[in-house]
Design brief:
Blueprint lengths: L32 H14 L5 H16 L1 E4 L2 E5 L27 H5 L5 E5 L2 E4 L5 H10 L18 H4 L5 E3 H15 L3 E2 L3 H8 L21 E4 L2 E4 L34 E7 L21 E5 L7 E5 L1 E6 L2 E2 L3 E2 L7
Parallel strand pairs: 9-13
Antiparallel strand pairs: 1-4, 2-3, 4-14, 5-12, 6-14, 7-8, 9-10, 10-11
Helix pairs in contact: 1-2, 2-4
Amino acid sequence: MYRKYLSLLISACVLTACTGETTASVTSKTVPAEKITQIEAKVKKLYPDADTKLQHQIVEVAVESLESMVFIKGGTFMMGAFKAPCNPISTDRMDWSPDAKCNTALSNAETGANFMHKVTLSNYSLANHETTYHGFDAFKRAHNLPVVKAENRAKYDLSDEQFKNKATPTKTWQEAKDYCLWLGELTGSPIDLPTEAQWEYAARNRGKHLYYATNNGYLQRKGDQHLVDGRYVDYTKDEWNIGSSIDLNQIKLYPPNPLSLYDMAGNVKEWMNDWYSEDYYQRSPELDPQGPSRGSKKVMRGGGLTTSRAGQAIAQDGYISLNGFRCAVQQPTPVK
């Protein structure tokens, strides 16, 4: 049943500037009223000088972060770039079979992705979407930092759906890390970036042999065609499961994968918690691998094959539109 919870005022002015002004309600289908009250109290304590609008935005973002978490039951799988058919009709529509013998990408040898290795993961939860401008803005404003691309957004309105539903770019790995830890502080949950093993396991629908993290394991791109009975046919709007460059950064435009995770195949690349090393797969522990203990780059996943990986310098000169992230809850029980 749909449950609607109004924000409760703590000590008479939790989400006001203590002027008697009331705020809009925060609603949730899943987060209990007591939890929302706790988050409101935390926001008031941490940011007493923030205006009412910003306090409300922070609470809204924190509550939504819990709503978006998808619980993923752990298990064992063979991590790494499994083989593909050697002469597929289309690399966008490949089906795995045990006799597949060809590599999926030349880069897999360079990044070490070709080294298959056994991994067993504990339960965890993963955000069903990439972090948006709206969420990242709340984090930036709460810490008195300029919002992303502030010079182009002087008239930015918090109700602008274009930014509210768009994956935020990042400049550094650390700000993605700090954002997830900040959500953890607000909500009392162990929120952090996911490991690359967690990301791949989820992208592959709990470790299945899927080349793409779409609703059906194929790429059915907007504006593209596929071969049917010897002739090329346009994909219909209902068949699209990945966007074009025009849709870049817009979240949830297309169906999620079978675990209800959006944009794992397209959209932006995502920062992982792990340091990057080309030979890590060869020495990775089986149980809940965390990546190397040190390095100069961080792992990025997404934007292509479920098994592809890349190393990215931890800081860039400016905000990169293709470098985004999503957060995870590092606990073996569902978020409550």
